[in-house]
Amino acid sequence: MEIHVDVRKAVWSRYWSHGIAHSCGGSYGNRYEGSLARFWRTACAGLRPGARMLDIATGNGAVPQLLLAHTANSISCDAIDLAQPEPRWIAGLSRHKRARIQFHGQQPAEMLPFPDARFDLVSSQYGLEYTDLGRSVPEILRVLRPGGTVCLITHHADARPVRLAAAELAHLDWLQAPAGLLETAGAMIEPMARAATDAGRASLSGDAAAHAVRTRFNALQQEAAGLAAGSACPDALAEMRAALGQVLNVAAGQGAGTAYEALSLLAQALADSRVRLQELCDYALDEAGAISLAAALGGSARNIEPLFDNGMLMGWSMKLRPVRGAVRILA
Ligand SMILES: C[S@@+](CC[C@H](N)C(=O)[O-])C[C@H]1O[C@@H](n2cnc3c(N)ncnc32)[C@H](O)[C@@H]1O
After folding, report:
1. Whether residue 328 has pLDDT greater than 70
2. At the topology level of CATH, where does 5-157+284-320 sit?
3. CA separation for the pair 331, 316 (Å, rounded)
4. Distance 167 CA to ligand 1 centre (A)
5. Which residue has the least CA distance to atom 9 on ligand 1?
6. CA 180 to CA 192: how far, in whole Å?
7. pLDDT of residue 228
8. 28 — pLDDT class (breaks 50, 70, 90)
9. Tens digits of per-residue pLDDT, 245-302?
10. CA of 254 to the centre of ligand 1 (A)
11. Atom of ligand 1 nearest to the CA of 83
């Protein structure tokens, strides 16, 4: 299912508004490390002092953050994203370093606001593959200076993040199913709020419907715990289980209205996760797709490599030095 660009923009803007450093959830600490970081350090190793780089689909700037930390050279960086980034980490930079990075939010890669031949390095990590490559690749080639480099990490159709995303989508299906955990928690709010008073508790004792909802909710909470325990990606289930318990505490302590508001925020968060995970799976490149992208940038299969971290496949890495006029339109 194709996601409308405005939905994608809103979903990612909400995601980045939490100050999250990157898009790989709990699998990396506050930044990307290991072989991804090594790839980016090598990518900028040969840059001349004063070089300019452009990071495409930057999110909260995981790649610029790494590169600014690891280059002795005074490189400067423009970072664009379709969504609105909120990179809190730049507040911790010295004034000198902060002046060297500029974020451009709500800026699609298909229409770059830069003059021709502006950048020595164009980078993108888990980003370019989300764009309309038939329009973004010519833009990259336009703004890259002759002799400049394109370095990419993209999603790989067989990689761990894609497999985890597919498993997590199945958990979202389970959580959001009719009469599933989310809906049943909603049905629990009114009885929980009623239980806050003596009269309410008395009315619940003979309320068979409320009793049935409670039994179902408890059974589903247990099922969620079991599913999470047997899964390589328990986060969505475990977090939702805890959050729904809190919503019901809110119902008991602050009333049904506040609890319904909290539940609708959770439902929104789940719907957003679904969009991000579905797109991750949809835009991951198989080998033919990776070769086709490299070819469009003037390279070939020789320019792509599977990227492993701790023995786990994490994506495709690509390093290219496009030759002017080598633009090929992708099918
Ligand atoms: C998986 S995140 C990667 C973010 C970042 N590069 C990182 O490694 O943490 C994908 C990003 O692509 C952005 N994006 C999607 N389509 C885009 C487009 N057409 N132009 C620019 N950015 C886009 C999204 O807004 C999102 O921030």
Report:
1. no
2. Rossmann fold (3.40.50)
3. 20
4. 22
5. 22
6. 18
7. 93
8. very low
9. 999 999 999 999 999 999 999 999 999 999 999 999 999 999 999 999 999 999 999 9
10. 38
11. 25
Answer whether 103 contacts ligand 1 (Cβ < 6 A). no
DSSP conformation class of 301: G
pLDDT score, position 67: 87
Q: Is 127 in the pocket of ligand 1 (CB under 6 A)?
A: yes
82 lines ligand 1 (CB under 6 A): yes
What residue owns the CA closest to ligand 1's atom 10? 127
pTM recorded for the entire structure: 0.91
For the chain, the domains span 5-157+284-320, 161-280
Nearest Cα to 70, choosing from 29, 31, 103? 31
The alpha carbon of 32 and the centre of ligand 1 are apart by a number of angstroms equal to 15
Shortest-distance atom of ligand 1 to CA 24: 9
Identify the residue whose C-alpha is closest to ligand 1 atom 27.
Answer: 59
**DSSP designation for 285:** B
Upper half-sphere CA count for residue 194 (Cβ side, 13 Å): 15
* Torsion on CA atoms 115, 117, 118, 124, rounded to nearest 10: 110
Residue that has been written with the tokens 């633009």 in this structure: 327
